[in-house]
Amino acid sequence: IIQREYNNYDEALKFYNKSLALATKTSDSITIINNIANIYLDQKKYDQAISALKNSYNSSIALNNKKQIARALNNLGAAQSKINTQEALSNITKALNIREGINDNIGMYSSYKHLAEYYQERNKTALALNYANKAYKVAKSINSANYINDALSHIIDLDKNPKVVEYKKLSDSFALSRRLGENKF
After folding, report:
1. Angle at CA 155, nearest 5°, toward 146 and 171?
2. b/e map 106-120, b = 16+ CB within 10 Å
3. What are the residues whose beta carbons fall under 8 Å from the beta carbon of 6, sequence distance 6 or more?
4. Contact (Cβ atoms closer than 8 angstroms) between residue 76 and residue 61
């Protein structure tokens, strides 16, 4: 996790693969595979991410764990959306339906966030803003400062005011520089 935070993706993959080799429970392996897929997404290696997430999804189905199934399906849909795979939206929506059914608020936040990103990437700003606001509402309900900040950041991303866009870009750049410059871990 620390290596990923510092954008040291190769090192992060090395540690996740070591963890995967040590995992004794399928549920632990699924979580690690999801994390590996997220690194592939960070690296824009979408085919590798999709392959890992299909593996995670199939393992989750075998365990019949709805929370794991929804996470894998949501992440799979998000990865598929990056390469315009037809079933991307369907997978994110199915994951959201599962999460709503089991009242998984943290999971619903992730689904709403991915739906906002999906529509934003397709220039459907009204739909993107609708889901970004839903993500914000869920973040407020679970009272998570990190999720609230993330949701507000997505809402700001949808604002087309040039000054707001410039501020967001600078703010994100400063945050990344601080994180990379600090040795707090």
Report:
1. 65
2. ebbbbbbbbbbbbbb
3. 179, 180, 185
4. no
Task: List, for residues 136-146, the tens digit of each pLDDT value.
Answer: 999 999 999 98
Q: The pTM is what?
A: 0.86
Q: How far apart are CA 100 and CA 85, in angstroms?
A: 24
Rounded CA-CA distance 106/141 in Å is: 10
Whether residue 30 contacts residue 66, with contact meaning beta carbons closer than 8 Å, is answered with: no
Q: Does residue 88 register a pLDDT over 80?
A: yes
Nearest to 79 by CA among 70, 67, 91: 91
Separation of alpha carbons 124 and 153, rounded Å = 17
Q: What is the pLDDT of residues 37-66, one digit of tens each?
A: 999 999 999 999 999 999 999 999 999 999
Percent of the chain with pLDDT over 70: 96
